[in-house]
């Protein structure tokens, strides 16, 4: 039953429908007749390392006074403590999933199961989004799109996931994460060449040391012999990393384009993509992967795969709360923290000395994203 609150007989009656995100204002006119109008209160929720800033939800706006409108449901009130908690969860989950996936891919039994692993993650994401869209949670309202419209974006998403996994498999964690810094200049270049969108000159200047830092690392990493047991990065690693950056950048630009064209938020767009992408990759598994023999894989490896899927669900959920509660700027800051943490931990695990020549490239690249 719809809930409402009435202050005076002639004052507006506010009714919020629980099953759809709309507010109906019902009031008496001068002749005693009743007229009503509907105002949309749809929300924009997510994206990843990759989309435009959504409109903040009223009940998630930390700077809005409680008395400025209808009092939100108590369980939906957002506090700074909860926002900090979700930022911490997002950071820890992102760092953990990189190292978890790297450990999984270092096992020869899973090194040649890239498509199957990506399929698993896409279906986990689709299941998570389905649960979040149910009426008893209702973090977003699904907006189904035609299959032919979603196929290009879903295909690009699949390639993006696969090449990211390949890059992580055949690269050191430090190089894998540093190479991803090139997303920013690559997206800027694609937007400039194909959409005639430019960025401020000062912002463009900060991209130069970023690119230089990644170039230095790409040049010295394959040649590094500083520690005989340190993980090596080959020219194949560089190729896979750069290919992953290019595909990921195209995917990022298309996400923004789809959101503007079809008026979809990040969750709605991802909800349409993931089932399509999962089915597409599942069909390819018999021709692309050499699946592990179940009996020969230790139980702890299967538990690690389940843990990786759980981390993916946590990342999607926490990213929603971060962007909706604090905006894309705060999300970007969290992204910088994650990059620094992954690079630092990856460097420690690789057991490379600080005097390694590629260290200068790492410092230059990290400094450029903080500028």
Strand and helix layout:
Blueprint: E1 3-5, E2 13-16, E3 22-28, E4 34-40, H1 80-105, H2 108-111, H3 114-133, H4 147-169, H5 173-179, H6 183-195, H7 201-220, H8 235-262, H9 266-288, H10 299-350, H11 358-370
Helix pairs in contact: 1-10, 3-9, 3-10, 4-8, 4-9, 5-10, 6-8, 7-11, 10-11
Which structural class is indicated by helix and strand composition?
mainly alpha
Number of strands: 4
Order of helices and strands: EEEEHHHHHHHHHHH
Q: What portion of residues belong to β-strands?
A: 5-15%
Main sheet attributes: strand count, strand direction, barrel closure: 4 strands, antiparallel
Radius of gyration: 23 Å
Average residue pLDDT: 75
How far apart are the termini? 52 Å
**Uncertain regions spanning at least 5 consecutive residues:** 1-78
Shape: globular
Helix content: 55-70%
Structure report:
This protein has 371 residues and is mostly helical. It is built from 11 helices and 4 strands. It has helices at 80-105, 108-111, 114-133, 147-169, 173-179, 183-195, 201-220, 235-262, 266-288, 299-350, 358-370; strands at residues 3-5, 13-16, 22-28, 34-40. The chain has a 4-stranded antiparallel β-sheet with strand order 1-2-3-4, with no helix packed on it. A hairpin with a 5-residue loop joins strand 2 and strand 3. Helix 1 (80-105) crosses helix 10, helix 3 runs antiparallel to helix 9 (266-288) and helix 5 (173-179) packs across helix 10. It is globular, with a radius of gyration of 23 Å. The N and C termini lie far apart (52 Å).
């Amino acid at each position: 039953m719809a809930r409402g609150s009435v202050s005076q007989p002639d004052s507006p009656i506010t009714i919020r429908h629980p099953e759809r995100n709309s507010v109906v204002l019902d009031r008496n006119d001068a002749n005693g007749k009743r007229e009503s109008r509907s105002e949309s209160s749809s929300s924009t929720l997510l994206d990843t390392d990759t989309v435009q800033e959504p409109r903040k939800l009223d009940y998630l706006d930390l700077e809005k006074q409680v008395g400025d409108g209808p009092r939100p449901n108590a369980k939906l009130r957002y506090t700074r403590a909860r926002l900090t908690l979700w930022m911490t969860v997002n950071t820890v989950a992102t760092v953990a999933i990189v190292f978890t996936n790297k450990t999984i891919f270092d096992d020869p039994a899973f090194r040649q199961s890239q498509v199957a692993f990506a399929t698993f993650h896409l279906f986990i994401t689709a299941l998570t989004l389905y649960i979040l869209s149910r009426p008893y949670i209702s973090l977003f309202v699904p907006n189904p799109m035609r299959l032919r419209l979603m196929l290009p974006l879903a295909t690009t998403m699949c390639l993006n996931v696969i090449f990211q996994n390949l890059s992580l498999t055949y690269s050191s964690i430090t190089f894998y994460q540093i190479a991803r810094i090139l997303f920013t200049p690559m997206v800027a270049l694609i937007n400039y060449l194909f959409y005639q969108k430019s960025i401020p000159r000062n912002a463009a200047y900060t991209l130069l040391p970023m690119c230089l830092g990644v170039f230095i690392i790409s040049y010295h990493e394959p040649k590094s012999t500083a520690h005989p047991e340190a993980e090596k990065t080959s020219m194949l690693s560089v190729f896979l990393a750069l290919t992953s950056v290019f595909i990921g950048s195209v995917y990022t630009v298309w996400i923004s384009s789809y959101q503007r064209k079809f008026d979809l938020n990040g969750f709605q767009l991802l909800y349409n993509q993931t089932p399509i992408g999962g089915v597409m990759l599942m069909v390819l598994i018999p021709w692309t992967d050499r699946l592990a023999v179940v009996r020969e894989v230790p139980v702890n490896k299967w538990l690690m795969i389940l843990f990786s899927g759980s981390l993916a669900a946590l990342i999607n959920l926490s990213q929603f709360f971060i962007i909706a509660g604090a905006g894309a700027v705060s999300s970007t800051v969290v992204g910088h923290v994650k990059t620094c943490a992954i690079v630092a931990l990856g460097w420690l695990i690789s057991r490379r000395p600080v005097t390694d020549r590629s260290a200068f490239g790492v410092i230059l690249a990290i400094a450029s994203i903080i500028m």
